[in-house]
Every structure is written in C-alpha cells, then in structure tokens.
Amino acid sequence: MSVSVIIKWGGQEYSISSLSEEDTVMDLKQSIKTLTGVLPERQKLLGLKVKGKPAEDEVKLGSLKLKPNTKIMMMGTREESLEEVLAPPPENDDVVNDFDIEEEVIERVYGNENLAKIARRVKDYKVEEMNPPREGKRLLVLDVDYTLFDHKSCAETGQELMRPYLHEFLTSAYEDYDIVIWSATSMKWIDAKMKELGVTDNPNYKITFMLDSAAMITVHTPKRGVVEIRPFMKAHLNREKDRELYKLAQYLKEIAKLEDFTGLNHKHWERYLSKRQHH
User: What are the annotated GO cellular component locations (predicted)?
Assistant: First the structure.
C-alpha cells in the first residue's frame, strides 16, 4: 500500500506519494529533504505521533495509520536559510489589518443575511471548554497568525516563530481577562501550534477555549470581494525589535479598570496608552 502525505512548511504545501507502509519516518524525512532542502536532523514533524509521543525515525509509516493526503506541519530550516531567518521578514501585502476595513463592511456584517449565517454558526458550532470562564472577567480573543506566531517564515522550532513577550503578555492579560485563541485554520493546526509554543499547559495562565475556521463566516463586499472577519492583525514578527505585545499588555491593563468598553476605539490603542502614560 502506498502512503500519501502533504507537508506544510514555510507557507507552501509539498505532496509526497512515493512511499509505502514499509518505509520509515526517516524515509519520509529523506523525501522531505529532496523537496525542501531541509536536512532530516533539522526537521520537526508536528502531529506525527505514536501513542501520544512524536514518532521516532525507525517507526514504519504503516503503523501510523495515516489517512490518504494527511497534512503534516513541519518545523525546519535549510542550512543556508539560518541566517535569513534571523533577518526581519519582508513586508507582505496580503495581510489585511481589520481596522483598515471600511465602515461599509462593518454595516454589511450586521445585514440580515450575515446575521442568519452567524446564528447558524452559534447553533452548530460546539465550543470545547478547556478551562471554565471566571466570574467578572472580560473575554480577550487573540488571532494566531501574525499576532502570536509568524506562520510563513521557516524556522527550526516554534520558539523562533513565537512573537516576543508572548508568555509575559498572556500572563499579564490573564489577570484581568479570560483568553480565547482564534484562527482561520483548522483546530488541528491551532492545537499543534499552541502546544509547540508552550501555551496550552502554561502554569502562569489558562486558555478558556479555542476557535477554528468552522466558527467563522465570510462577508462579501463590493470593494473588497470576500473579507474574512478576523481579530486584530498588527505586524509581522521581528524577533529583534518587536515590542508590540509588551505595549499591548499595558493597554489591556489600563482599560481593564474601565466599567464600559463601548467608548473605546481600539484602533487608537497606542494613542490611548500614550495619553495615560503622560498623565
């Protein structure tokens, strides 16, 4: 029996269908090396497990009981890319900042058709609570890609793709807010990323629940076509200089004192913070 898998790495997908059930995880890694240039010893395959533990190199693929075209996320860097990984990532035009979306889009979200879509999602989507909500805490919903984690760059470990101050930010926010992780990908990837980053079982804060693409709706607008309703995306990661989460933690701490958030415009959060700090 042949084994077919799809490797997700660096924002690309690589299809491998030349292996059999008798081949091993190391044979798979060699095939990945041929396609990506990443050496086997630099590859970390997320979600490839035997009895809850990462599959060792000598394990036969047949024993993993993989469905055809199973997607496997890889961490890993080509030797020649290690220097590039440390450089600031290039600007990417395909990232939409939700706060740049016109008012007209916001109005359309509240149209009857979309309210019906939202009602269907609310009815059908099952939230799996990881930790119970706490009395009196507001809810903070955080997007994964480009907010907590740079999912396009190539790196050897999730730590290299983790946004600076992530754990300090979540620890601080947890004092005042229940935290929800949200992403427009599948729950499998969200789960893998959060485990890789050490978010899921962190002793200093708890995640209330996670939401995947099944909880989202799309909104059609004349100007932009389809716009996915996502939480705030601010910037690509810049491992050396990025202090966004450090500053955002201070903003969340400031507004936590308020009884009512309706008067806030989160688009101007830096301005709000700067005013408070100068008083």
Answer: nucleus
Judge whether residue 143 has pLDDT over 90.
no
pLDDT tens string 195-244: 888 999 999 999 999 998 888 877 665 555 544 443 323 334 456 677 88
Residues 48 and 119 grouped into a single domain:
no
Q: What are the structure tokens assigned to 105, written together? A: 């889009």
Q: What separation in angstroms does the CA of 35 have from each of 3, 38, 40, 245, 266?
A: 16, 8, 12, 36, 44
Asked if residue 42 belongs to a domain, the reply is: yes
Domain of residue 113 covers: 103-277
Is the separation of the CB atoms in 176 and 138 below 8 Å?
Answer: yes
Q: Are 36 and 148 in a shared domain?
A: no
Q: Report if residue 98 sits inside a domain.
A: no
Mean pLDDT across the chain, nearest whole number? Answer: 80
Q: Are 73 and 161 within 8 A, CB to CB? A: no
Domain boundary (44, 78, 112) is at 78
Which amino acid makes up residue 276?
A: R
Domain-embedded: residue 27:
yes
Type of residue at 1: M
In this prediction, residue 44 has a pLDDT band, given cuts at 50, 70 and 90, of: confident
Predicted TM-score of the model (pTM): 0.62
